Amino acid sequence: MGPAYASVPGPATILAGTFVLDGPTGNMTWSDEMYTIHGYRRGEVAPTLALTLAHKHPDDLPRIQAVNAKLFAHGGHVAIYHRVIDARLREHRVLTAGEARLDDAGKLASVSGVMLDLTSTIQAETALAAREAVQWL
Q: C-alpha distances in angstroms, 131 versus 11, 21, 39, 65, 114?
Protein backbone atom coordinates (compact mmCIF):
# COMPACT_ATOMS: atom_id res chain seq x y z
CA MET A 1 0.00 0.00 0.00
CA GLY A 2 1.37 3.44 -0.98
CA PRO A 3 1.67 6.49 1.21
CA ALA A 4 -1.42 8.46 2.14
CA TYR A 5 -1.43 11.98 0.82
CA ALA A 6 -3.38 14.77 2.43
CA SER A 7 -5.56 16.89 0.24
CA VAL A 8 -4.22 20.41 0.12
CA PRO A 9 -6.99 22.98 0.17
CA GLY A 10 -6.50 25.92 -2.10
CA PRO A 11 -8.35 28.22 -4.40
CA ALA A 12 -10.39 26.71 -7.18
CA THR A 13 -8.44 28.91 -9.56
CA ILE A 14 -5.19 30.81 -9.39
CA LEU A 15 -5.15 34.43 -10.49
CA ALA A 16 -3.06 34.50 -13.66
CA GLY A 17 -2.23 37.70 -15.50
CA THR A 18 -0.58 38.11 -18.86
CA PHE A 19 1.80 40.81 -19.99
CA VAL A 20 3.77 41.99 -23.01
CA LEU A 21 6.79 44.25 -22.70
CA ASP A 22 7.81 46.33 -25.70
CA GLY A 23 11.60 46.13 -25.52
CA PRO A 24 12.51 49.41 -27.23
CA THR A 25 10.08 51.59 -25.24
CA GLY A 26 9.71 49.77 -21.91
CA ASN A 27 5.93 50.13 -22.21
CA MET A 28 3.80 47.18 -21.25
CA THR A 29 0.39 45.77 -21.93
CA TRP A 30 -1.24 44.12 -18.93
CA SER A 31 -4.32 41.93 -18.66
CA ASP A 32 -6.92 42.91 -16.07
CA GLU A 33 -5.46 40.26 -13.75
CA MET A 34 -2.03 41.91 -13.89
CA TYR A 35 -3.61 45.16 -12.75
CA THR A 36 -5.30 43.26 -9.90
CA ILE A 37 -2.06 41.57 -8.79
CA HIS A 38 -0.39 45.00 -8.67
CA GLY A 39 -3.31 46.59 -6.80
CA TYR A 40 -4.71 48.69 -9.63
CA ARG A 41 -7.65 48.82 -11.97
CA ARG A 42 -7.24 49.23 -15.70
CA GLY A 43 -6.80 52.92 -16.50
CA GLU A 44 -5.31 53.93 -13.13
CA VAL A 45 -1.71 53.60 -14.31
CA ALA A 46 0.18 53.12 -17.54
CA PRO A 47 2.09 49.84 -17.15
CA THR A 48 5.81 50.06 -17.86
CA LEU A 49 8.87 48.03 -17.00
CA ALA A 50 9.85 50.71 -14.47
CA LEU A 51 6.45 50.49 -12.73
CA THR A 52 6.60 46.71 -12.68
CA LEU A 53 10.08 46.73 -11.14
CA ALA A 54 8.97 49.33 -8.57
CA HIS A 55 6.47 46.74 -7.26
CA LYS A 56 9.07 44.01 -6.68
CA HIS A 57 9.94 43.21 -3.08
CA PRO A 58 13.22 45.02 -2.31
CA ASP A 59 14.89 41.76 -1.25
CA ASP A 60 13.99 40.16 -4.60
CA LEU A 61 14.82 43.10 -6.86
CA PRO A 62 18.59 42.49 -7.32
CA ARG A 63 17.96 38.87 -8.35
CA ILE A 64 15.19 39.95 -10.75
CA GLN A 65 17.41 42.63 -12.28
CA ALA A 66 20.21 40.07 -12.81
CA VAL A 67 17.81 37.61 -14.46
CA ASN A 68 16.36 40.39 -16.62
CA ALA A 69 19.82 41.57 -17.74
CA LYS A 70 20.66 38.09 -19.00
CA LEU A 71 17.22 37.57 -20.54
CA PHE A 72 17.19 40.96 -22.27
CA ALA A 73 20.69 40.40 -23.70
CA HIS A 74 20.25 36.81 -24.91
CA GLY A 75 16.50 36.20 -25.25
CA GLY A 76 14.94 32.89 -24.33
CA HIS A 77 12.65 31.62 -21.61
CA VAL A 78 12.52 32.44 -17.93
CA ALA A 79 10.59 31.41 -14.83
CA ILE A 80 11.18 33.14 -11.52
CA TYR A 81 9.45 32.99 -8.14
CA HIS A 82 9.36 36.33 -6.33
CA ARG A 83 7.21 38.75 -4.39
CA VAL A 84 5.17 41.71 -5.58
CA ILE A 85 4.15 44.53 -3.25
CA ASP A 86 0.92 45.92 -4.62
CA ALA A 87 -0.31 49.52 -4.55
CA ARG A 88 -2.05 48.84 -1.22
CA LEU A 89 1.21 47.45 0.28
CA ARG A 90 -0.01 43.82 0.25
CA GLU A 91 2.56 41.14 -0.53
CA HIS A 92 1.83 38.67 -3.32
CA ARG A 93 3.93 35.56 -3.92
CA VAL A 94 4.10 35.07 -7.65
CA LEU A 95 5.64 32.91 -10.31
CA THR A 96 6.44 34.77 -13.50
CA ALA A 97 7.23 32.88 -16.69
CA GLY A 98 7.96 34.43 -20.03
CA GLU A 99 9.82 34.51 -23.28
CA ALA A 100 12.10 37.27 -24.52
CA ARG A 101 12.48 37.74 -28.26
CA LEU A 102 15.36 39.60 -29.86
CA ASP A 103 15.18 41.48 -33.16
CA ASP A 104 17.46 40.84 -36.15
CA ALA A 105 20.07 43.18 -34.65
CA GLY A 106 20.12 41.19 -31.39
CA LYS A 107 18.28 43.87 -29.40
CA LEU A 108 15.32 43.11 -27.14
CA ALA A 109 12.13 43.22 -29.19
CA SER A 110 9.62 41.99 -26.61
CA VAL A 111 8.96 39.87 -23.57
CA SER A 112 5.62 38.15 -23.19
CA GLY A 113 4.50 36.01 -20.34
CA VAL A 114 2.26 35.16 -17.46
CA MET A 115 2.33 35.97 -13.75
CA LEU A 116 0.63 33.51 -11.40
CA ASP A 117 -0.41 34.79 -7.97
CA LEU A 118 0.29 31.81 -5.68
CA THR A 119 -0.36 33.68 -2.42
CA SER A 120 -3.61 31.95 -1.43
CA THR A 121 -2.27 28.53 -2.44
CA ILE A 122 0.85 29.00 -0.31
CA GLN A 123 -1.25 30.25 2.62
CA ALA A 124 -3.53 27.21 2.38
CA GLU A 125 -0.57 24.81 2.21
CA THR A 126 1.10 26.50 5.19
CA ALA A 127 -2.11 26.34 7.24
CA LEU A 128 -2.51 22.65 6.43
CA ALA A 129 1.12 21.91 7.36
CA ALA A 130 0.66 23.76 10.65
CA ARG A 131 -2.52 21.81 11.45
CA GLU A 132 -0.81 18.53 10.63
CA ALA A 133 2.23 19.44 12.77
CA VAL A 134 0.00 20.25 15.75
CA GLN A 135 -1.83 16.92 15.37
CA TRP A 136 1.45 15.09 16.01
CA LEU A 137 2.26 16.98 19.22
A: 18, 42, 31, 37, 32
